[in-house]
Amino acid sequence: MCESNQRGYCKGCLRSREERFNWHLKPAAERARILKLLAQRRARLQQKANAGSQPEPQPGSLDLF
């Protein structure tokens, strides 16, 4: 079950109500477009989470995660 945040996006899947509505009936091209948007949203959330929580890697160090 989806739970929306303040901006109207699901906290779990990051889709808006409109994006979630009748997902299985949407054409493949529309679902693909939404999935690309979700990848962008996840990246922004990850950047936001990492912004203050981790120090910048030192030059020459290898950060795999």
Automatic annotation (TrEMBL):
Source superkingdom: Bacteria
Region (Disordered): 45-65
Database matches in InterPro entries: DUF1289 (IPR010710)
Cited Pfam families: DUF1289
Protein name: Fe-S protein-like protein
Organism placement in taxonomy: Bacteria, Pseudomonadati, Pseudomonadota, Gammaproteobacteria, Alteromonadales
